[in-house]
Please model this.
Amino acid sequence: MPLISDEFWERAAASPLAVAVRESIWVYPFLETVHVLGLALLFGAIVAFDLRVLGFSTALSVSRLWQHVKPWIWTGFALAFASGVLLFIGDAADFAANPAVQVKLVLILLAGLNAAVFETRLRPSVAAWDLDTPAPRAARISAGLSLALWFSILIAGRLIAYIK
Amino acid sequence: MSRARLLLSLVIGLALLAPLAPGHAHHTFVTKFDGSKTIRLAGVVTTVSYSNPHIHFQVQVGGTTWTVETESISAARGHGLTQNVLKAGAKVTIAGWPARDGSPALGLHSISISGGPSMTMRRTAH
Model:
């Protein structure tokens, strides 16, 4: 029993917004472009931070690097999320049934949970490992998990067009 | 640190291997349609979904309804396949590549519209 009925997705795909996404000449390529731009910001900033926590470039302050990447992570996420929702609505019934979409959404949820754990449990102690010190093992595991999850999210996203 | 490097190498290694996964290709088209076979059909257009990312339309050929896939809206317009030309009721002759799964589906190579233009949409299936 799916969480949301096929009928709901079919109605969403028939909505004026969905029709505009599909049937305007440049809306779809525009949204695809915004999605890639958002991913580039989000993923680039996340990779830079996770590599630092994993133990690369320990001469960089973790807390200062975090201040630098945080707004770009959120900007990228907002762009990718908004464009992703609109692209999804354009063909909601097919996307909802696509295994690559389902896997991707679960992975995004896991990446969010991992980030929340890092934010609430691990980053508060950052003063102790801010400079020239290896991060605690739990923080390194979280950073490695984050990299693996976001790599997988990119791959799942790209595979949407090739799987049904 | 060695553990971190190991983990990182693993992640990068998997990412590099991903393109080798079955079903992956440069374009959906070649995974759906068999570029080694070409077929030609004549029939009447019944429905048109003039949509991104790919336009689809159906062609009635005898008792069979073929589903035909072609380019995006902007690419199709560039070839001259506008909504004024590709519409229900149009008599068409189409050539293209059949679906790999054996269903009555065709990746469009070229289309000739009775009393209208003829155009080549794509030269190869890959």
The longest helix of chain A spans residues 62-90.
